[in-house]
Structures are given as structure tokens and as C-alpha cells.
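subagent[fold] <- orchestrator: predict structure for attached chain, return C-alpha cells only, no commentary.
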Amino acid sequence: MVNLHRGEIEAVLDGRPFRLCLTLGALAELEAAFGDEDMLALATRFEKGRISARDCVRIIGAGLRGAGHEIANDAVARMASEGGAAGYVEIVARLLSATFSGQSSASGKADTESDRGPFPGTT
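subagent[fold] -> orchestrator:
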């Protein structure tokens, strides 16, 4: 079960449920991967609403590792998501929203359209 107060979400990858969480270490990993200087720069980057497949791999991978799964980005890149490409973006949007706005329901999805943060796929 996900802990919303920790910014956790659940996502189905390769037909299995996984918990994801962008911990402080996971955020530091993303700062290094994207070349951002701090969390504000990272949040600003995501607010632009543009995300590449490589971004999805990095964010989902960091979220999986933040939740305790030992999985490399190469393996994440080969995982299938429900909904195809849109499914990956939806996972990333929910994870970023849970991390930076903390407005998610027990399912890990934003409660209503008005509750969603300014991240890709949430507006």
C-alpha cells in the first residue's frame, strides 16, 4: 500500500504493481542526470510540460529505486506500461505531482482535475 504522505504512488509495469517514490536521494539522482543545480530547477524543468522518453526512463527508474527496487534504467526502458507511451507519461505525471504537490488519492491518482499540479499530463 502506498504512503501518500511520503509522495508514493503505485504503477503497473510489465503487468506487476510497483511502488514508486522520489526520495531525496532519487531527486539528487535526477538533478545529476538532468544537470540541474537544485530541486527548484528540477521542478521548474518539469513544469514546462515537455517530457522525452529518456526523461520517463530516468524519472520512473529513480522512483522505483527510491521505493527500494534495485533496477537499472536499462531494465526500466524495456518495461511495458499499461496505455503504452501515454501510460508512461501518466506514471511520471502522478509521481511528480505526488512529490512536488502532495495532492494524490489513495490510488496514487489526483483526486480531481482541480487538484492536479502543473506537471506533464496533469493539466
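orchestrator: received. Logging for downstream: Residues 84-100 form the longest helix (17 residues). Residues 104-119 have pLDDT under 50 and may be disordered.
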